[in-house]
From TrEMBL:
<dbReference type="GO" id="GO:0003824">
    <property type="term" value="F:catalytic activity"/>
</dbReference>
<dbReference type="InterPro" id="IPR011766">
    <property type="entry name" value="TPP_enzyme_TPP-bd"/>
</dbReference>
<feature type="domain" description="Thiamine pyrophosphate enzyme TPP-binding">
    <location>
        <begin position="7"/>
        <end position="127"/>
    </location>
</feature>
<dbReference type="GO" id="GO:0044272">
    <property type="term" value="P:sulfur compound biosynthetic process"/>
</dbReference>
<dbReference type="GO" id="GO:0006082">
    <property type="term" value="P:organic acid metabolic process"/>
</dbReference>
<dbReference type="Pfam" id="PF02775">
    <property type="entry name" value="TPP_enzyme_C"/>
</dbReference>
<dbReference type="InterPro" id="IPR029061">
    <property type="entry name" value="THDP-binding"/>
</dbReference>
<dbReference type="GO" id="GO:0030976">
    <property type="term" value="F:thiamine pyrophosphate binding"/>
</dbReference>
<dbReference type="InterPro" id="IPR047211">
    <property type="entry name" value="POXB-like"/>
</dbReference>
<protein>
    <recommendedName>
        <fullName>Thiamine pyrophosphate enzyme TPP-binding domain-containing protein</fullName>
    </recommendedName>
</protein>
Length: 140
């Protein structure tokens, strides 16, 4: 990861869309990839991005699950509890705010979806529906 081109949001400080919105004032090419719950916590900032014409691009890994929380529960020997999410269609939600919304349910069309996202002339959200049983990232 190139530190001059990447910012890693950790610890909820400037997480999600709001942090990316801030970065968009320094760069005209801000892109963020985050989970569905991370997006849910800050998705209303898409309204701000639209209002101020900030060209942010958001990739939402939508597995309808708190994947890392589930893994942490398993690692601690606990039963999985409270990790299922009931998500809206994030692409439609983005469209309702004036952003471009793209829904991806077929991984073979990922390249096409990413191209459409990057080439959008307005804020855009790619709602990438993924397998809830895949490990989202290393919890360590």
């Amino acid at each position: 990861m190139d530190p001059t081109r990447s910012i890693l949001h950790r610890g909820l400080g400037q997480c999600g869309v709001s942090g990316t919105l801030g970065v968009s004032f320094a760069s005209d090419k801000p892109v963020i990839a985050l989970g569905d719950d991370g997006f849910s916590m800050t998705m209303m900032e898409m309204l701000t991005a639209v209002k101020y014409s900030r060209p942010i691009k958001v990739v939402v890994f939508n597995n309808s699950k708190l994947g890392l929380i589930k893994i942490e529960q398993q690692l601690m020997g606990y039963q999985e509890y409270g990790t299922e999410l009931h998500n809206p269609d994030f692409a439609k939600l983005a469209e309702s705010m004036g952003a471009l919304g793209i829904r991806l349910e077929d991984i073979s069309k990922m390249g096409e979806a990413i191209r459409e996202l990057i080439e959008a002339d307005r804020p855009a959200v790619l709602d990438a529906v993924i397998n809830p049983n895949e490990v989202p990232a290393s919890p360590l």
